[in-house]
Design goal:
homodimer, alpha/beta, Nucleotidyltransferase, domain 5, five-stranded mixed sheet, 5 helices
Chain lengths: 165, 165
């Protein structure tokens, strides 16, 4: 896709659910080319779940050939176990994108909220509603993880300063 | 290698340094087939460092063709940032091993200490000294991360109950 209509893949990493959303912008209008989630069953061993994330994300990168990938920076939870679990999935996501040499950018949660709603402390529902309006969708993008992924992709398109990971 | 002389790869994952050690047992005698560390420079972006871990670990798996891979379970640090960082590397390690379908086992730090020194609360230096003795090495295995990886491989060989990850 030409640089005038960049295709951005947003990702919200998690071991159980990794949200993804593809957004493009043409003549000032945003449009999604698809969104969804990669789910891995908690009954499977962790290594098998990470292979699923790797394989499905690889397929998404091949299918959409994004010009850039945007990932939300992690909120540093006080819970080390949660941070470790998200770290497993995020490590695999960063590896998969880097292996395909897609330019990778990251944004703080406050940057995503600011870029999507104009308000750095917006709530989850406000973000979903703004993502729906900006992408001209009939219904709220579901589940939350897909909406979050669309939001970070929109954030990348709206940001003037792109910080690489 | 035949099942009478199983080859075990032990791994101590970390973003900056991932220790590895290969141990085999023949007629009751332990022997190392190699040990070392995968280092990634802190000046590189995280995704590139994860690619280095993936590539070097893939090469180790291809070269040594281990019958099993043993990884130390994480100590849940109170520091969420540390847990996240180790999680990135550990996620990539588990993925890489699972993609090659090598059987994967994990052990608690106390199990490793117990298996190597007979004492669940042994110190780092005691573990290194016991690893040196058990493997009949002239010097202490260095760096610490390689010694830890050798210890978890020995733990797997000495364990009767193998818990998969």
């Amino acid at each position: 896709m030409s640089s005038s209509s960049p295709v951005i893949l947003g990702i919200d990493p998690g071991t159980a659910i990794t949200g993804w959303g593809v957004v493009t912008e043409s003549q000032g209008t945003l449009q999604t080319l698809g969104f969804g989630v990669i789910r891995t069953p908690s009954t499977e061993p962790l290594p098998a779940r990470l292979v699923t994330i790797y394989d499905e994300l690889t397929a998404l990168l091949q299918h959409h050939q994004p010009d850039a990938v945007a990932v939300e920076e992690l909120f540093f939870s006080k819970n080390a176990r949660t941070a470790l679990s998200v770290g497993h999935a995020r490590g695999v996501v960063l590896l998969t994108v880097a292996q395909r040499q897609a330019p990778l950018f990251h944004y703080k949660p406050s940057q995503v909220k600011q870029a999507v709603t104009g308000y750095g402390a917006a709530g989850k529902r406000q973000i979903q509603e703004m993502v729906r309006l900006l992408l001209n969708l009939e219904a709220l993008p579901q589940p939350d993880d897909a909406a979050d992924a669309l939001a970070v992709a929109i954030c990348h398109l709206h940001s003037t300063s792109h910080l690489s990971v």
